[in-house]
Amino acid sequence: MKLSSLLLPAFLLAGPSLAEHTSNWAVLVCTSRFWFNYRHLANVLSIYRTVKRLGIPDSQIILMLPDDMACNPRNAFPGTVYSNADRAVDLYGDNIEVDYRGYEVTVENFIRLLTDRVGEEMPRSKRLLTDDRSNILVYMTGHGGNEFLKFQDAEEIGAWDLADAFEQMWEKRRYHEILFMIDTCQANTMYSKLYSPNIIATGSSELDQSSYSHHADNDIGVAVIDRYTYYNLEFLESEVKDTSSKKTVGDLFDSYTYEKIHSHAGVRYDLFKGGAEEARRRLVTDFFGNVQNVEVDSGKGETNASFEEEMVRLSRTIAELHTRAEEQEAAERNATASAAKTGKKQQQPRKIQRVAKPLTDDNWWTKKIVGATALAGCAALWGLGSYLEGVV
Questions:
Q1: What CA–CA distances, in Å, run from 237 to 53, 54, 144?
Q2: Which residue has the higher pLDDT, 313 or 239?
Q3: For a designed S-S bond to 223, which of 39, 124, 186, 348 qualifies (C-beta 3.0 to 4.6 A apart)?
Q4: E strand or H helix at 27
Q5: Could you give the CA distance from residue 81 to residue 137 in angstroms, rounded to a whole number?
Q6: 228-258 pLDDT, tens per residue?
């Protein structure tokens, strides 16, 4: 009997099936400063509030705000930020964690964040600690143009810069799937150069189109939210009440109309494995909601059945080997007893010193297989317990 033929199937099946993804992260970036860009800050804080409502913890959200509108001396309502003229919800509130603030919001820091090219001194709260089982929502808003987005009116990130950063993330196994959303003028040009797999991209406006604000608050004196973000939030607040929602990314994108947004919102599916059909089936909560330790069965129960059958065969083999070992020991005892009865020369009783008995090839391999197989059985049983726990 070959030991490898017994152990290999059990270890191949001992681990759980691969998961679709095991965590969701959000990178939310406002790139504008100055009071008249109040709406851009409100845009990103509105998305921040939504992903927190759907369960993504602050430890898995990177929030980048270049200006603090809540403390601006022009703010008629100090310490607050609103995205609606009725001021029903304070987006700033008491439970907000800003990871990059003020002049920390730069193109360099944004790219270093995505690609994990930061120093060891960087705290965990400012790092994107994702892996190849992480889904990431990347939302950006600000002022832009044809294939660029401005950062604080001082620098800009280009479409190729963004594409190369995502490619580095893919090569370093830093994401499973990405949903990229951008609300700016000529937004769709910013995802035109992307070339890495498993990315769904959407933007607020085509080439040579502007991104428009939705409405202003006369008491605050400026526009408080952009149209594209406003109607995304309207869908998320009305259709995605909690993480049990079955609304898909396709449902969200189908809600975009020119009459509402006043520009042609765009979507790009071609980078996604399976194309538009597969991408549209992704749940909204696969990017906006919290997911922990998701395990997805493969083969519609075939893996479970195969595993159980292999475990039964392994148990039978272990029992058989134990029986053989016991029979061999009994035979040795009988042979010794028979030899004593043949009338051979009796020897005076003497103190017997037990020493290690050399093993023959047969009983050495038998005991070796028994020990290794028992160890394999324990490991396989442990794996089965972990697997069943993950499924439950």
A1: 10, 10, 27
A2: 239
A3: 39
A4: strand 23-30
A5: 23
A6: 999 999 999 999 999 999 999 999 999 999 9
Residues with Cβ within 8 Å of 350's Cβ and at least 6 positions away in sequence, in order, are none
Could you tell me which residues are beta bridge partners of residue 215? 225
For CA atoms 256, 261, 263, 267, give the dihedral sign.
negative
Q: How far is CA 184 from CA 36, 181, 193, 252, in A?
A: 15, 10, 17, 19
Indicate the pLDDT class of residue 339, thresholds 50, 70 and 90. confident
Burial of 326 (0-12, 13-18, 19+ CB in 10 A): exposed
- Please tell me the distance from the alpha carbon of residue 245 to that of residue 236, in angstroms, as a whole number: 10
- Mean pLDDT over residues 287-295, rounded? 73
Take residue 264 and report the two structure tokens written for it. 């042609």
Question: What are the residue numbers of the active site?
Answer: 143, 185
CA 245 to chain centroid, in Å, comes to: 19
Pairing between β-strand 177-183 and β-strand 61-65 as defined by DSSP bridges: unpaired
Q: What is the mean pLDDT of the chain?
A: 84
pLDDT on residue 320: 81
Angle at Cα 228 formed by Cα 226 and Cα 232, nearest 5°?
A: 115
Whether residue 176 has pLDDT greater than 50: yes
Q: Which residue has the tokens 């800050």?
A: 41
CA distance 250 to 237: 16
| Residue whose token pair is 């392994």 | 314
